[in-house]
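Practice problem 4.
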């Protein structure tokens, strides 16, 4: 079943329906895991200057033998690099470390006071052809509304914390209205989902693992998950989610586990 294998952004650019997260991989782990992931069939890799592994990600892409144009590379501008000039420079540095002359997607990592100036730089880089798509991350409804009120161009993606403990229903609806695609970070709630009885029951009934059930849930919500793993067998497991469907009832059960976010509230960050 291929129906979730790609999504189309509002500018017509296609994005794979699932990607590999690389947070907390060092350069060596990123180089090895990215090459393994591309060999297993992944075509999107998510990194950020803050992860300190862009060089490793670039090496993984090169050594995989997969043509650069077949890989969707995502990076992010870090908080201390926000503002117009700094963002232009930060993007150049990321391109150098990743050993590429363009990014498929560049995101503002967190909303900050200077995010409007940062966004202007992203628009400029997009128009110069250095970025095929531009977006934001950790933007709440009021951050998106503010950007929409002040700019000509809307983000194509909002990458936010999203998992069964934190399903972000209001934000997802708002993004859908604006035609902003939602990408889920910590899609597996960093592994905390595995012990939940309701998820285990659904997994048993489909002959799948809990991780596969949850990743499938993201895809059926029309969100793009970017699970991180450094293990070859889990890379394959996390990709093997396109041969079954969850029922409406199962989708509801998964979204009703009601715990809380893992990461910080974007309005309260101190970094
Ligand atoms: N924009 C942002 O602010 C932001 C913030 C955080 C993360 N992100 C991005 O989102 C990506 C994903 O988020 P995340 O890494 O925080 O959390 P995650 O993907 O929800 O969880 C990763 C954890 O789950 C484990 N895992 C992966 N597949 C598994 C499986 N099939 N069965 C059991 N355990 C499994 C991994 O362990 P092993 O590696 O040992 O397999 C790792 O400990 C990041 O890597 C990063 O690229 C973005």
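Answer key:
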């Amino acid at each position: 079943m291929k129906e979730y294998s790609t999504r189309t952004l509002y500018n017509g650019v296609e994005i794979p329906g699932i990607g590999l997260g690389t947070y907390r991989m060092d350069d060596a782990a990123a180089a090895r895991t990215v090459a393994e992931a591309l060999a297993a069939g992944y075509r999107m890799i998510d990194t950020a200057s803050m992860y300190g592994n862009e060089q490793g990600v670039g090496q993984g892409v090169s050594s995989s033998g997969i043509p650069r144009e077949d890989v969707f590379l995502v990076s992010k501008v870090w908080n201390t690099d926000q503002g117009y000039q700094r963002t232009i420079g930060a993007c150049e540095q990321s391109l150098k470390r990743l050993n590429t002359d363009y990014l498929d997607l560049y995101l503002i990592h967190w909303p900050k006071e200077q995010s409007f100036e940062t966004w202007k730089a992203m628009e400029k880089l997009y128009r110069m052809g250095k970025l095929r798509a531009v977006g934001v991350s950790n933007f709440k409804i009021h951050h998106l509304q503010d950007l929409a009120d002040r700019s000509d161009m809307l983000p194509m993606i909002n990458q936010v914390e999203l998992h069964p403990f934190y399903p972000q229903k209001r934000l997802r609806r708002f993004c859908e209205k604006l035609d902003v695609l939602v990408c889920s970070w910590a899609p597996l709630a960093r592994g905390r989902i595995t012990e939940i009885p309701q998820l285990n029951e659904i997994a048993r009934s489909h002959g799948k693992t809990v991780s596969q059930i949850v990743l499938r849930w993201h895809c059926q919500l029309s969100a793009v998950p970017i699970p991180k793993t450094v293990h070859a067998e889990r890379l394959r497991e996390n990709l093997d989610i396109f041969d079954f469907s969850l029922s409406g009832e199962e989708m509801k059960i998964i979204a009703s586990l009601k715990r809380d976010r893992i990461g910080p509230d974007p309005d309260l960050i101190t970094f």
